[in-house]
Amino acid sequence: MLAKAVALAPDDAEIRYRYALCCYERLVMEEALAALDEWEKLSGLNAEAIANIGMLLMNLGAPERAESALRRAVSAANSDPRPLLTLIQILERTNRLDEAAHLLAQLTEHPQAHTLGKEIKLIRAQLAQRMSDHEAACTIFAELLDDCAEPHLKHLLQFPLAKSLDGLHRHDEAMNILRAAHRSQIELLRLTSPASIARGAPTMVITRFGCDPEDVAAWKDSTAPALELSPIFIVAFPRSGTTLLEVTLDSHPLLASMDEQPFVQNALDDMISQGCSYPERLAALSGAQMATVRDRYWERVHRKVVLKPGQRLIDKNPLNILRLPAIRRLFPHAPVILAVRHPCDVMLSCFMQHFRTPEFALLCSHLPSLAIGFRRAFDFWYQQEQLLKPKSRELRYETFTAQFQTEIPILLDFLELPWDDAVLRPHQTARKKGYISTPSYSQVIEPVHKRAVGRWHSYERHLADVLPIIQPLLDRWGYEGLGSSNQQPPILREAVS
After folding, report:
1. Are the beta carbons of 186 and 197 closer than 8 angstroms?
2. What is the DSSP secondary-structure string of 348-398?
3. Contact, 108 vs 86, CB < 8 A?
4. What's the fold here for domain 2-116?
5. What is the distance between the alpha carbons of residues 395 and 415, in angstroms, rounded to a whole number?
6. pLDDT at 494
7. 67-85: pLDDT as tens digits
8. What secondary structure letter does DSSP report for 458?
9. All structural domains of the chain with their residue ranges
């Protein structure tokens, strides 16, 4: 209905915003961004409309398209504080905390600040948390939570509250709040995505189907690009340190990255549309068909990132770990980096995150389903890696952060890239990038550190029930298991092959 409304009144700002918001809620990001093209020329743009569009553009990963207009709105809308609030939110999300705090002080003195209600308290809590004032953040989040009457919205406050409780080492309280947050998010999904609730936690069906060895032996594609013309793929289970790795590589002048995109999945869909059975029967795809699929992949990429002459693309999407057959068929010479981190740290971090994608939110809503998903992802990877033999390298988060200056030259050698000192300063690259789409946006602007290693030790008793599920991977990688919190966390033993 909103699409029809846009067709009837294409210049109406309110209608265009509502349509773009609906696309965003449906996770159709490209349509949402397209709906806001040249939004500055729409009719009916008052201060509230500009603030709403600015907030949506920030959530879509394009805050720069709104910031200049918001600044104009702030100076022009003396009676409406909402554009100033949205500008502060954009500054926080793009890691400009000093300016955000300065403008927040102005906002609290605004004569109409009271009209913002709870929103001004929320941004105050968020900035307190970013500045590690977790006591203040906890107090404000708890007050807002007490005032929240809608059970399906409480998780929007419970997830950040748990983060500050964790920062105060109140771990059992944090875990209790997290469980409540997941229950609240499930109530929201009952309203917004009932089909996902009916299906339950995803069983990761894709991991049940592997390539046929005879079919793989018949893969031929003389049109496939060489390594230096292929993307660099970073895969993992989410929350394994891939954002730090991506930003580090993005610091190299011969590399360029983009936000996490579904382009490998899009290419997989294109392969299926050519009539093949994925992944068992990919040999039937001709060189011309693969060239077409590849061209469409690059068309999508070029809408997101401009590659300078000689630059190579970093395609980082953790869950492409489930799509190794597509990567290997599409770019047979591409290097693939598998990011590995202690499974308990990964699962804890996933459990603490607010994921918008219904399927992944459901997977992470219970530790047992999360552990099963983690195990299935890596079982699938190792089965397919043994058959497909990609040019791949495992990179341990613990080793990468502890021996950063030693690991980087080894990684660049694997990627066949020359040395450049810029890779030693990924935090500077992160600050220059401004917007980073992943939950790690607030961590990667700091110099490389080891503080996130071994966080799971504080939650050992909550993880005990899932240990049998992940034990084979702990053994494979040589990570310590539960019951070892008296040791230095975590000691990384030599990996078991």
Report:
1. yes
2. HHHHTS---SHHHHHHTTSHHHHHHHHHHHHHHHHHHHHHH--EEEEEEHH
3. no
4. 1.25.40
5. 13
6. 34
7. 887 887 887 766 789 889 9
8. G
9. 2-116, 211-477
